[in-house]
Amino acid sequence: MRVYLDNNATTIVDPYVFETMAPYFCEMYGNPNSLHEFGSETHPALRCAMDQLYTGINANDNDDIVVTSCATESINWVIKGIYFDHIFNGDKNHIITTEVEHPAVIQACRFLETLGVKVTYLPVNSDGIIELDTLRESITQETALVSIMWANNETGMIFPIEEIGKICKEKDVLFHTDATQAIGKVPVDVQKTNIDYLSFSAHKFHGPKGVGALYIKEDKIITSLLSGGEQMSGLRSGTLNVPGIVGMGKAMELAVENLDFEKSNVMKLRDRLEDELLKIPDTFVVGTKKQRTPNTILISIKGIEGEAMLWDLNKAGIAASTGSACASEALESNPVMEAIGAEADLAHTALRLSLSRFTTNEEIDYTIDIINKAVKRLRAISSTYSYAPDWHNSKL
Ligand SMILES: Cc1ncc(COP(=O)(O)O)c(C=O)c1O
Predict the structure, then answer these.
(1) What is the pLDDT of residues 198-231, one digit of tens each?
(2) Measured from the CB, is residue 324 less than 6 Å from ligand 1?
(3) What are phi and psi of 67, to 5 degrees?
(4) Is 124 helix (H, G, I), strand (E, B) or coil?
(5) Residues annotated as part of the active site
(6) Closest ligand 1 atom to the C-alpha of 70?
(7) pTM of the prediction?
(8) Do residues 24 and 13 touch, judged by C-beta distance below 8 A?
């Protein structure tokens, strides 16, 4: 049996999405900016896809959704674009983010630090969430941008985006949210919240890889980082990825249609998996179920290196992760576990299981069985494991 429980890294392309994209590879392959029919025959599908994106996040007609190559590009655009508009050419010099952002945010901020920008990395509590008072106190006259994720890729913890948006509005500071792990898992409505910029990637919600987007609120246009042929109203030059855009639009439509299914069926499967795994002595899961995306579990099984568990799971055909896919080749401890205060040996035990609407009951049964067997095997050979009833509280 092959079981894919690494859906926070990437997802299977929904067959309906694939079907929608297919004609735009070998039949309608023209450049949409060309003046002939090969170009113009792609226009209806592009318009439909853009409508699906606007509807999916409830954007206003006057707002911009600019298609990019991925969330990493969208995030880098916001953070570096804000630098050009408000720091290099303005009177601000400060950005606020959190310690548990995806490396796309952290590394873009670190880059700006080398240019002299001050960056505050807000700490998180033991649930992996920031304290709103700390955010409020960190904003100064110099703050150009607050960049805080909607949902965390490791823990699935959902940040209080509405409250964060209110604080940013009160303090008159721009707010970007990385919604890469939120789209298709929780409702994302840019009109209900004060969001100026929002980033996402299609492949996290059963769309294709290599395409993402940046939402830009009506009057919050930022400097373009890709100059060239003036595509996307001059905001991001480069020939349009027609199949990618068409696929992302369809994926967004299906993601929104399936939100109830995520909240009922996917969550039910996730909860069953979690409850069964928590019966293993000395295990704990980061963050309360209610505050997490419906598909994610970050579990720590005492005495078992995450990589050792991954090895056993992989041999049995199960894909999981110890952290974000970008860092998974390095034998490092989970940075989010460290940020919530776990000691290094505990942070090394992190195992992330992330489900999708394609995960089945049988796959969950099989995974529970394989993990139980792996725990027995690995604990039997681990010299460091000894039973301690209250071990995780003392470590956090
Ligand atoms: C929260 C979050 N932000 C950004 C990204 C980057 O997405 P991409 O690799 O598609 O650019 C990821 C991918 O894992 C993510 O989980």
Answers:
(1) 999 999 999 999 999 999 999 998 999 999 999 9
(2) yes
(3) -75, 135
(4) coil
(5) 326
(6) 11
(7) 0.94
(8) no
**CATH assignment, 15-257:** 3.40.640.10
Identify the DSSP state of 144.
E
Q: Please state the atom number of ligand 1 nearest to the C-alpha of residue 325.
A: 14
Ligand 1 pocket, residue 180 CB under 6 Å: yes
The alpha carbon of 378 and the centre of ligand 1 are apart by a number of angstroms equal to 31
Report d(CA 97, CA 107) in Å as an integer.
11
Q: Whose CA is nearest to atom 9 of ligand 1?
A: 72
Q: Give me the residue spans of the domains in the chain.
A: 3-9+259-395, 15-257
Q: How far is the CA of 269 from the centre of ligand 1 (A)?
A: 24
Q: Across the strands, what pairs with 98?
A: 122
CB distance 69 to ligand 1 below 6 Å:
no
Select from 157, 218, 86, 103 the least CA-distant residue to 95: 86
Instruction: Look up residue 321 and give its DSSP letter.
Output: B
pLDDT at 325: 47
Asked if domains 3-9+259-395 and 15-257 share a fold, the reply is no
Q: How confident is the model at residue 342 (pLDDT cuts 50, 70, 90)?
A: confident
Write down the architecture of domain 3-9+259-395 according to CATH: Alpha-Beta Complex (3.90)
The structure tokens listed for 256 are 């929104």
Packed helices 361-381 and 306-315: angle between N→C axes, nearest 10 degrees: 130
Beta strands (DSSP E) in the chain are 3-4, 64-68, 94-98, 118-122, 143-147, 174-178, 197-201, 212-216, 283-285, 296-301, 318-319, 350-354
Please, what is the end-to-end C-alpha distance for the chain in angstroms?
36
Instruction: Give the atom of ligand 1 at the shortest distance from the alpha carbon of 212.
Output: 10
Q: How far apart are CA 266 and CA 8, in angstroms?
A: 14
To which H or E segment does residue 309 belong?
helix 306-315
- What φ, ψ does residue 267 adopt, rounded to 5°? -65, -40
